[in-house]
Design a protein that fits this description.
Elements (H helix, E strand, L loop, with lengths): L1 H17 L8 H4 L8 H24 L6 E6 L6 H7 L6 E7 L1 H13 L1 H4 L13 E4 L3 E5 L5 H11 L7 E6 L7 H14 L3 E8 L5 H12 L6 H4 L3 H9 L5 E6 H8 L2 H8 L7 H9 L1 E8 L23 E9 L11 E2 L2 E6 L2 E5 L2 E4 L2 E4 L4 E6 L2 E6 L1 E2 L13 E4 L4 E5 L12 E5 L13 E6 L5 H4 L5 E7 L2 E7 L12 E5 L4 E3 L3 E2 L10 E5 L2 E5 L12 E6 L4 E5 L13 E5 L2 E5 L12 E5 L5 E7 L13 E5 L4 E5 L2 E3 L5 E3 L4 E4 L1 H6 L1
Parallel strand pairs: 1-2, 1-5, 2-4, 5-6, 9-34, 17-21, 26-30
Antiparallel strand pairs: 3-4, 6-8, 7-8, 9-39, 10-13, 11-12, 12-15, 13-14, 15-16, 18-19, 19-20, 20-21, 22-23, 23-24, 24-25, 27-28, 28-29, 29-30, 31-32, 32-33, 33-34, 35-36, 36-39, 37-38
Helix pairs in contact: 1-3, 3-12, 3-14
Pathway: tRNA modification; wybutosine-tRNA(Phe) biosynthesis
Pfam families: Kelch_KLHDC2_KLHL20_DRC7 (PF24681), LCM (PF04072)
Subunit structure: Interacts with RNF144B/IBRDC2.
């Protein structure tokens, strides 16, 4: 099973190369089968390839003055590293050794001999048959050895001509974690002890215990290729100590969010972000926070070691100080209702203790799909009940939308604004949802909703998604403040509209003050006649930590910054509510790898900002608090979280299986 990961990785890299993420004409020759992967997979393999190449080329550049150097790639699989470096003219005095299981290297050796484009770059000197050597060229050796058998590895490398006395780069790209920790530790220590001038490059997974990490771990367990390193070395700090304790003197480590921010030039970031329609930001950033690149060195010149810059993104540094915890409890009577397993949906309180949930992607009739059905959740006698809503007209009016908003404007009317089907399609417009003025909370299945299509009314304001719509009043008239988001043409929007709710027309109202940075996936709440905008993802795909108030004035509105202390940790894909002068932020995605966002409470009078962890001890499944919806019931100080989750890279789709109730009594009273 572990050997099978080499082929899967090669196919994914080949797909990324075919779409322009990676410049590599050799991958298609080595991958064997070809299969187009999703944009999220392309980005994941791009950053993996980019981080390894960054360190390898740095090593080669800085060792140009040496007469001879060597690279030892451990568990190389069907990687094309040697052929790329040779083609670029970077191997004038460097020999590349690749080691993997015997049957993997035999397949690779056969491919090299059969493919003219490969064999033209490396001349077979006929070393095959000498022990573990499957292929031997002047500057390329392919060895079949089980890495966990250290004595066999050492003997095979010696036979192949590896020189302990010259600068050596060891590469382990998602390899050591498949070995028992005692064996991988021994290999790390052996490399430090036997090579006086050496660097070690490690790329693998981290953070096994948070929700994404649990899904990741379970995926590899199901593949029968468990990640052994994670239990003993769960974070970057532990990995750093691992190498320092085994003979390496300089160690640098950063996760892939840090690497992308610090080591990939801005123009290259923009190039990659524009290659394909993309709308899985949460899963991209979570994937990046669960993989790291580490470089260790010893005996090398201090002017160029280590291979990574010793910089970190400021908001990634150090653990998040938590002021306390909030307990999460499953709503027992809502379990087992597939329609509530969804993400990218919207939930809104349409009557006291009655919630309407619409849209998103989730589980319906045993299949993962864009959700067509609406659901109503009703609370009666202290317990929740859910039912599927009857729609009075065809589904085509709805459009199976994700990342839309729903605003309840009266006892019988809600307005749907925006949303999308796929990231490459034009955004969807507006829709009225009409429901009875009086509904029987005891039987939510009997509630019917009528859909009324409103295209092409107010199109520029509504052809967007990941935006916000917030109710405001101005001079006695009711408006929806439509702000931010993104569209098929613009990856991030910073404009706004005042949508007159009676006429459904855009009204020009004066707005003063410095305009906030463009953003999507932010939160927006009504407060004191204005709007609070918090967080979001900016134009550079970086989370934002700003809080803005669109303050109501006599003649219009004014943008004002809300200062928080300590500063709010940048985040996006959260939800928000205001209660008695306190802004409550729920979940989201941030770049703080040490923890996941729980509940943040901001006192809007003093600016005091406190983070609370969500205690999930009583949940039997990972609680993913992004792409969720939440509804706050002020009388009970109860927060109901509905849905959430996403497509967890190549590890499968995780949908929070049932709604979760959070009691905020203790933290709201403590403020």
């Amino acid at each position: 099973q572990v050997q099978g990961t080499a082929g899967s990785s090669a196919v994914s890299k080949c797909s990324a190369a075919a779409r322009g993420y990676i410049q590599d004409r050799f991958l298609r020759l080595l991958a064997g089968r070809r299969r187009r992967r999703a944009p999220l997979i392309h980005r994941g393999y791009y950053i993996r390839s980019r981080s390894v190449d960054h360190c390898v080329q740095h090593f080669l550049l800085k060792t140009q003055s040496y007469a001879r150097t060597q690279i030892l790639s451990l568990g190389a699989g069907f990687d094309s590293l040697y052929f790329r470096l040779k083609d670029m003219g970077l191997l004038h005095h460097t020999v590349v050794y690749e080691v993997d299981f015997p049957n993997v290297v035999c397949q690779k050796a056969t491919l090299i001999k059969r493919m003219v484009e490969l064999s033209a770059l490396v001349e077979d000197t006929g070393g095959k048959g000498l022990g573990a050597i499957a292929f031997s060229g002047e500057d390329y050796k392919l060895l079949g050895v089980d890495l966990s058998e250290l004595s066999e590895l050492e003997r095979a490398l010696e036979e192949a001509g590896l020189d302990n006395e010259i600068p050596t780069l060891f590469i382990a790209e998602v390899v050591l974690t498949y070995m028992e920790s005692s064996r991988s530790d021994a290999l790390i220590q052996w490399a430090a002890e036997h090579f006086p001038q050496a660097c070690f490059l490690l790329y693998e997974q981290v953070h096994p215990e948070d929700p994404f990490g649990r899904v990741m771990q379970q995926h590899f367990i199901q593949l029968n290729s468990a990640l052994h390193s994670l239990a003993q070395y769960p974070d970057c700090e532990a990995q750093q100590k691992r190498f320092l304790g085994r003979g390496w003197t300089e160690v640098s480590v950063m996760d892939m969010n840090e690497f992308f921010t610090c080591c990939v030039p801005e123009d290259e970031q923009q190039r990659v972000q524009a290659l394909e329609p993309f709308d899985e930001y949460e899963e991209w950033h979570l994937k990046c926070s669960h993989y790291f690149v580490l470089t260790a060195s010893k005996g090398m010149e201090p002017s160029w070691a280590p291979l990574l810059p010793s910089v970190t993104v400021p908001h990634c540094a150090g653990p998040v100080g938590m002021a306390g915890s909030v307990s999460a409890a499953v709503c027992a009577r809502l379990s087992g209702i597939p329609g509530l397993r969804r993400y990218g949906h919207h939930s809104v309180l349409i009557k006291p203790n009655m919630i309407l949930t619409t849209g998103g992607f989730g589980e319906e009739d045993g299949q993962h799909c864009r959700m067509r059905n609406f659901h109503v959740l009703c609370k009666r006698a202290g317990s929740w009940k859910a039912g599927c809503v009857t729609k009075k007209n065809p589904d085509k009016t709805w459009g199976e939308r994700l990342y839309h908003t729903v605003s309840c404007l009266s006892d019988s009317l809600a307005l749907v604004v925006g949303g999308r089907t796929s990231p490459s399609s034009e955004g969807l417009g507006m829709l009225w949802l009409k429901f009875p003025e009086t509904c029987d909370a005891s039987d939510p299945d009997d509630i019917a909703v009528e859909l009324v299509n409103l295209q092409p009314a107010a199109e520029p304001a509504t052809l967007r998604w990941r935006h916000s719509t917030t109710e405001v009043t101005f001079k006695g008239e009711q408006y929806l403040f439509v702000y931010g988001g993104r569209s098929a043409l613009e990856p991030v929007l910073g404009d706004w509209y005042f949508l007159h709710t009676r006429e459904l027309s855009n009204t020009v109202i004066a707005v003063e003050g410095p305009v906030p940075e463009s953003r999507h996936s932010h939160s927006a709440c009504s407060w004191e006649g204005g709007v609070l905008i918090t967080g979001g993802l900016g134009a550079a795909e970086q989370p934002l930590g700003s809080v803005f108030l669109l303050r109501k004035l006599e003649h219009g509105f004014q943008w004002q910054t809300v200062e928080t202390h300590p500063p709010l940790i940048p985040r996006y894909s959260h939800t928000a509510h205001v209660h008695e002068g306190k802004l409550l932020l729920v979940g989201g995605v941030w770049f703080h790898a040490s923890s996941v966002p729980g509940i943040t409470v901001i006192d809007l009078m003093t600016g005091l900002c406190l983070d609370y962890v969500i205690d999930v001890e009583h949940l039997e499944w990972p609680l993913m608090l992004h792409n969720h919806s939440s509804v706050f019931l002020p009388d009970e100080k109860e927060l109901l979280v509905i849905g959430g989750g996403g497509n967890c890279f190549s590890f499968g789709t995780h949908l929070n299986p049932e709604p979760v109730s959070l009691s905020l009594n203790s933290i709201l009273l403590s403020h």
